[in-house]
Amino acid sequence: MFSKALAPEYQGALSALSVNSSLTDVLAAATEQMTAAERAGDAQETARAALAVAEAHRRLGHVEDADRAWKASYRTARSAGDVPAMAWALWSGGTLARQRGALPLAFRLLRLAADMGKRGGDVVVHGYSLAGLAETGRIQGDYEAVGALHDELLAEARERGEARHTVWALEGIAQMHRNSGRYDTAYALFEEAAGIAEAADDRRGHAWALRGLADIVSVRDGDTARALELLSRAEAGCREMNLSSALAYNHKMRANVLYRAGRYAEALERYQQALAEFREMDEPRGEALSRLGAVKARARLGAAEPARTAAELADLGVVLDRMGLRHARAMVDKAHAELGLSVAGEVRR
């Protein structure tokens, strides 16, 4: 039995905020509370409010503001000797680093957060930090290293009845199965995640699960109409909560679905939309994946010479190698074969 989804990153006077609160509302409330706590000389409450400010900015795509806020939260928590609050700030910083594609920094900050959470006796931030490490490894494509950790965290979340963390773990495991070609298993896991998220009123988790289902429905079943309908439902939830990053990934997935259906002009338009959104929020992983889709769509439309296409793919390969994204890097190699290109840009005969 799962309880209603909670948002433990909203703490102190902000603990009444819902996991589904609009991020603009969260930012306004947290900023007001942070200012009041600073005036009152309450360092612990200031650190908690700054954490919520950081998370709202991060999810809205305001990366520079988020960077300043999590660091301010950490410094204030350290001045108060509040070890759990220091761990939460490090978790926020590590999550932001992953979002920005700085995976080595993400690993370092999240390991520190996990250790500090354990030392401070905060099992929630310890678990969230371990989950962050698992997600960072999964995004990197190192499934063997983090698969067992995902399973362990899922078991713990189920045992404690934590809906939000259960949904997160299910979606992560599902994504690894999807990327490994085990579509039926991935679909079942995404479907379970969607059901739990909906029952627990976790709209963010529900939107990501619907996106995963749309991907499987498209790639496995070729059901474009249903995939687009699932993405439209997910988009509504993203817009309601102002989830900028999730919305951009939704648009990229819509482009993927259209591309698979041979609707290349529509796909290119969506890839370009997602690309602009990712660039605005300085999210290099999403930017690189959108660029890859756009390159492929232009090639299919005959809008780019083979040599230019190959050059763009080569540049993307360098970018993804630099970020350490193994699965995404493999997608670039696959694109060469799919488009009939050699690395030098010549059409294969």
UniProtKB/TrEMBL annotation:
Keywords: Cytoplasm, Repeat, TPR repeat. SMART domains: TPR (SM00028). It is found in: Cytoplasm. It comes from Streptomyces ficellus. Belongs to the Rap family. It comes from the Bacteria. This is Tetratricopeptide repeat protein. Its main location: cytoplasm. InterPro entries: Bac_ResReg_Asp_Phosphatase, TPR-like_helical_dom_sf, TPR_rpt.
